[in-house]
Amino acid sequence: MKEIPLCITLFGLTFLSTFLLGGIYYSFALLTVLSAHEVGHYVASRLHGVRSTLPYFIPFPLPPFGTLGAVIKTKAPIPNRKALFDIGVAGPFAGLALSVTAIGVGLRLSHLIPVEKVPEDAIRLSNPLFFSLVQRMVLGSVPENHEVILHPIAYAGWVGLFVTALNLLPIGQLDGGHVMYALLGRNSRRVFRLSIVGLVLTALFLNVGWLALVLLLLGIGYRHPAPLDDLTPLDSKRKLLGLLAIVVFVLSFTPTPFPQWSMGLKDLLWRAR
Question: pTM value?
Answer without folding.
Answer: 0.93
